[in-house]
Amino acid sequence: MTWFKLMKLHDLEPKRGRKVTIAQCEIGIFRLYDGSLRAIGNTCPHRQGSLTDGIVSGHYVYCPLHDWKIDLNTGLAEAPDEGATEMFAVRVDSSNNVYVAMDDDMARAMCLNPSQSEESLSTKN
After folding, report:
1. In what order do the strands lie in the sheet containing 60-62?
2. pLDDT tens track of the chain, all 125 residues?
3. What is the greatest pairwise CA distance in the chain?
4. How far apart are CA 91 and CA 9, in angstroms?
5. Among candidates 85, 80, 92, 86, which has minimal Cα distance to 37?
6. Are 89 and 100 a contacting pair, CB within 8 Å?
7. String of b and e for 15-48 (b: at least 16 CB within 10 Å)?
């Protein structure tokens, strides 16, 4: 598992999503109403809408294209809709830096070298 440093915690507004890109992987990171963080693939399983442009309510995000409701705890679309987006582990260190984890197989598939240090990899906010 490789951890990627994304931003400072204060850069995430509550009940909002923020898009980050690691190599070719677009990730949506969300700060929920209770302050907890979730990270998912930023693409809706329906028509590939950008989930960070959606509305966050509770632990769901609503896709801005067709209002699909995606559970930020599981990545699953709420029934009757079907589909899912990837989930990523998130952590905050003692300096309030936010990190997201990508497993090494996923990192290799995206042309990353998992042995690189997290500080040497660039992210786009």
Report:
1. 55-57, 60-62, 69-71
2. 889 999 999 999 999 999 998 877 889 999 999 999 999 999 888 877 889 999 999 999 999 888 889 999 999 999 988 899 889 999 999 999 999 998 777 665 654 444 444 443 444 44
3. 43
4. 10
5. 92
6. yes
7. eebbebebbebbbbbbbbeeeebbbbbbbbbbee
Q: For the whole model, what pTM was predicted?
A: 0.80
Task: Write phi, then psi, for 2 (nearest 5 degrees).
Answer: -115, 130
Show the DSSP H helices in 1-125 as ranges: 104-109
Which residue segments constitute the domains of the chain, with CATH numbers given? 2-112 (2.102.10.10)
Give me Rg for the CA atoms of the chain: 14
Six-digit token string for 95: 């300096």
